[in-house]
Amino acid sequence: MMINITFPDGSVRSYEQGVTGFQIAESISPALARSVVSCGVNGETVELNRPINEDATIELYKFDDEQGKHTFWHTSAHLLAEALQELYPGIQFGFGPAVENGFFYDVLLKDGESIKESDFPKIEAKMKELAGKKEPVVRREVPKAEALKQFAEWGQTYKCEHIEQDLEDGSITTYTQGNFTDLCRGPHLVDTGEIKAVKLTSVAGAFWRGDANREQMQRLYGISFPKKKMLDEYLEMLEEAKKRDHRKIGKEMELFMFSEKVGKGLPIWLPKGTELRLRLQDHLRKVQKRFGYQEVITPHIGSKNLYVTSGHYAHYGKDSFQPIHTPEEDEEYMLKPMNCPHHCEIFAWKPRSYRDLPLRIAEFGTVYRYEQSGELHGLTRVRSFTQDDAHLFCRPDQVKQEFLNVMDIIGIVLTAFGFNFEAQISLRDPNDHDKYVGTDEDWALAEKAIVEACQEKGLPAKVEYGEAAFYGPKLDFMIKDAIGRRWQLGTIQVDYNLPKRFNLEYTDEDNQKKTPVMIHRAPFGSMERFCAVLIEHTSGHFPLWLTPDQVAILPLSEKYNDYAQEVAKKFDMGGVRATVDMRNEKLGRKIRDNELKRIPYMVIVGEKEAAEGTVAVRPQGGGEQSVKTIQEFIDEVNARVAEMTKDF
């Protein structure tokens, strides 16, 4: 029997029933067959040797594709577990998924033993040995009772708990390679031989199921590639990433700090970092003012009932700080996990007419989430962060245009920093509607608005199912930094649900009460995360218009401190930001220290400059030095800033 296979370009070919993705790739070209690692059949990623028994659409994934990487790294996680099983008899296994950059496996050794970084070489050697055997990866569907019996015989306590609590009979599959079998939905490589290069990158603690009251396991992170050259390039990128680490550069530039006494994950912005943040906020304020936004300020706490009404307590309660109990009976408050419920109350504050819409409310609002201490990381994962949040309340016929306007704002903001970006449409999981609030009809309308807006803008966008917020679909903006890493920054979300939960209404032109549609948007995402990404992207060399200090004035000796301060005042009056280094240090030391602070210009002043009213200008990193009058230099800096900012 023949079946029809439809390719991404719309072309159709006929094949025998039971054909595999590998055979389809081979029918196109042997070279393609050698490079594919998995395939998408009717939108589901599966193994290349999985038979296709009915008409289907197909995509063939190479390692360069996201789905291909996921397949490759998923099998690599199993390869790691197989190696650990041989090296550490009695080891317990938790979960071992593929992640954005590689894979990890949670494990617990017997008798309090632990794996150290010094053990990595022997584990990597064992992984390479097993990969070299080209072990087939065999998928099998098993009844729940059989799965429980088998993993119990192997002494895998955590796997048994997972089977009992999470898995339904008739939906359980295992994958076996060599002597290792794991519970898994797949997909996987056909065999382990494609894994040519592996590297374990770190080991950390991880509580079983993320529960701090459960056993602490060890989480081994790793990455793998089909070619050693690719691993070498990745390791070079990691070395470059270490140099660009925002925590290191932030300390050198005196931008932010953390204090154990203040609390974990609570960043403190120092004067230079505060200037940086305020300048970013001013940039966005100017842009959104052109688009008719009004700025508000809301409290850092709210009644628990506010978040029960919004649904955030049900969906984010475990990730929030515990409710605050007041002396009044049954009165509970929460540290604000989201700004949107407060903004809904602003809309409800007074009667609204269709003439008032769209209403665009913006806030740089600080919110609080309880992240596990092991998940905290500099500014990218914190417990307190400020969102450049805005909520637009509009009529249904205004949704698409407002969405398009927000896309323009995000484009202006991101291109100002030289970021190239791509988009991701995040939709709800079609197989699990229980995770979301609202009707199917409202979700369809919201998803349609996002898809049409992207089409109208000509913005290519990848669709990801299951990544929507609980109240609505969203468009996420992903940027690539200077060393090729992807970060999710700006986001726009269409929400038909919160306005209904808060009973928001406006009077339409037919004098009937209607429910507005709500659009959530955050171009930066959060100020903390954006600053971290910007630091690492630029390695701390911020654009001249943004950098906290544009000039460091270096007097040759204490005799010229007064002239240096006079120059600083004139710079300030001329709109140039300058700091004076009056330390009793040699010039070479001052230059080195200020180079470390990434200040774009150093201005050296001594006897000649003081006598002639000039400054000796030294650009960051060396380069051609010059002598200018104070006004000439002010004009030069301002001209450069004007050129940089003319488009925004």
Automatic annotation (TrEMBL):
Write down the species: Xylanibacter ruminicola (Prevotella ruminicola)
Report the protein name in the record: Threonine--tRNA ligase
Give GO MF terms, alphabetically. Answer: ATP binding; metal ion binding; threonine-tRNA ligase activity; tRNA binding
User: What are the residue boundaries of the TGS domain, all occurrences included?
Assistant: 1-62
Q: Name one Pfam family in it.
A: tRNA-synt_2b
**Cofactors named for this entry:** Zn(2+)
Subunit structure, interactors included: Homodimer.
Q: What is the lineage of its organism?
A: Bacteria, Pseudomonadati, Bacteroidota, Bacteroidia, Bacteroidales
Task: State where it is primarily located.
Answer: cytoplasm
